[in-house]
């Protein structure tokens, strides 16, 4: 009985995976842009947007806490919007840790 249930679940998961990959592929990128904030120049923002424009979901790591980080993310979203489809973004709550932590 357990084997039968596991086999049904496996078939269901396999079918969902297969149907999802046949219908659409989602391209995901995660990039650590160390100290990503207001000091980024327009040319750096343009370079980053050009590198990321073909992805569907992007995770930017190490966005500076405070006003400069979200502002830089908004600048990146604005640059991505100029390259084609419209983008939206969400910024997580800042983490609290010492930069000296190992």
List keywords for this structure.
102 residues, alpha+beta, 3 helices, 47% helix, 16% strand, extended
Explain this structure:
The N terminus is likely disordered. The chain has three helices and two strands; from the N terminus they run αβαβα. The longest helix has 22 residues. The chain has one domain. Helix content is 47%, strand content 16%. The protein has 102 residues and is of the alpha+beta class. The N and C termini lie far apart (49 Å). It has a two-stranded parallel sheet with strand order 1-2. The chain is extended, with a radius of gyration of 19 Å.
Quick rundown:
This protein is an alpha+beta fold. It has helices spanning 2-23, 42-52, 68-82, and strands at 28-36, 57-63.
Low-pLDDT regions: 1-6
Oligomer: single chain
Element order: H for helix, E for strand: HEHEH
The count of DSSP E runs of length 2 or more, i.e. the number of strands, is 2
Helix content: 40-55%
Instruction: Write down the overall mean pLDDT.
Output: 80
Question: How are strands sequenced across the largest beta sheet?
Answer: 1-2
Approximate shape: extended
Number of helices: 3
What is the distance, rounded to the nearest whole angstrom, between the alpha carbons of the first and last residues?
49 Å
- Radius of gyration over all CA atoms, rounded: 19 Å
Structural class: alpha+beta
What does the largest sheet look like?
2 strands, parallel
Number of domains: 1
In what range is the share of β-strand residues? 15-25%
């Amino acid at each position: 009985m357990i084997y039968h249930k596991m086999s049904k679940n496996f078939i269901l998961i396999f079918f969902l995976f297969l149907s999802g990959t046949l219908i659409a592929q989602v391209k995901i990128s995660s990039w650590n842009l160390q100290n990503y904030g207001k000091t980024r120049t327009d040319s750096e923002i343009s370079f980053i947007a050009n590198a990321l424009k073909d992805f569907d979901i992007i995770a930017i790591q190490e966005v500076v806490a405070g006003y400069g980080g979200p502002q830089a993310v908004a600048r990146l979203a604005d640059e991505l919007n100029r390259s084609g489809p419209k983008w939206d973004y969400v910024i997580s709550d800042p983490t609290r840790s010492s930069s000296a932590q190992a």
